[in-house]
Write a structure and sequence with these properties.
Blueprint (H helix, E strand, L loop, with lengths): L1 H10 L1 E3 L2 E2 L5 E2 L7 E2 L5 E3 H6 L4 E4 L10 E4 L22 H8 L9 H23 L3 H18 L7 H29 L12 H14 L4 E3 L2 E3 L2 H16 L23
Parallel strand pairs: 2-6
Antiparallel strand pairs: 1-5, 3-4, 6-7, 8-9
Helix pairs in contact: 3-4, 5-6
Length: 269
């Protein structure tokens, strides 16, 4: 065991997260002893090469151990949704875009549908505005680094012109700013608060982000006699469940006469 621990520490192997089960062995008695003595280990490099892997326990069948099933292609990536990025607040023109986006159809009288319309309009405006204002950060960094490399190679054989030197300095500042912006976005999305400059591309960051995503992944949902596994059907099931929780509009048998109670009407705009 000491040699195994030394091997695990030397090669930095990690215990893969077992999804959906806490124990893998049972004593098979009337009041069973349950433990997790079956484990799967992998290196950090393997974990980064297989970000969509998921480890699950199968039926123990005739054994007292539950065999494990390792899938390398779990459907972790559902349809991308709009996420409001904190850095948008600091961009020039944010308040103007928000004022333009925060509108709704006056014919909508239901306050919940009105709020839904406001959010949907805001999403459309901010998606288009963010794409124009920022664009693809990784692509911009790659393009800037490509140009800087060409200038680096050129100055080995000749002196850069004033315009070329100015552009090279400007591109370095652009890369620095975009890298800081990339860190800010990665920090918000991953909820890793200790993320420092440049840490968004380290193995540690990706390992932590992959681990959090694996733990939050819902492999299946049980609805009555149905076991749902596809992403589309899981979306439908959760939407239906929340619709039932929120309720539906119906005509009330009784109402309150607010005027008779002398309750002033408030402007809710």
């Amino acid at each position: 065991m000491a040699r195994f621990r030394s091997f695990a520490q030397e090669h930095e192997i990690k215990d893969l997260y077992l999804h959906g089960r806490r124990f893998t062995w049972s004593s098979e008695r009337a009041v069973p002893t349950l433990t997790r003595i079956d484990r799967a280990f992998a290196s950090v490099d393997w974990d980064l090469m297989n970000p969509d892997s998921i480890l699950q326990a199968l039926s123990s069948s005739v054994s007292d151990h539950a065999p494990r099933h390792l899938s390398l292609s779990a459907a972790f990536r559902p349809k991308r949704r709009f996420k409001f990025e904190a850095f948008l607040l600091n961009l020039e023109g944010f308040e103007e875009v928000l004022t333009e986006a925060w509108v709704y159809d006056p014919s909508i009288v239901d306050p919940f549908r009105r709020l839904d319309a406001l959010f949907r309009n805001a999403v459309e405006f901010f998606q288009a505005w963010g794409e124009r204002k920022v664009g693809n950060i990784k692509l911009k960094i790659a393009m800037a680094n490509t140009l800087i490399l060409r200038f680096d190679v050129a100055q080995e054989s000749r002196t850069l012109t004033h315009a070329e030197a100015w552009l090279r300095r400007t591109l370095k500042l652009v890369v620095l700013g975009l890298a800081s912006l990339e860190r800010t976005i990665a920090r918000q999305r991953s909820r890793i608060r200790w993320l420092q400059e440049g840490d968004a591309n380290t193995k540690l960051f990706h390992a932590v982000a992959n681990g959090r995503r694996t733990k939050n992944y819902i492999a299946s949902v049980r609805v009555g006699e149905e076991t749902v596994t596809t992403q589309e059907r899981k979306n439908e099931v959760f939407t239906e469940a929340f619709d039932r929780l929120i309720g539906s509009i119906h005509n009330r048998e009784y109402t309150l006469n607010l005027e008779a109670l002398n309750i002033l009407c408030s402007e809710l705009e």
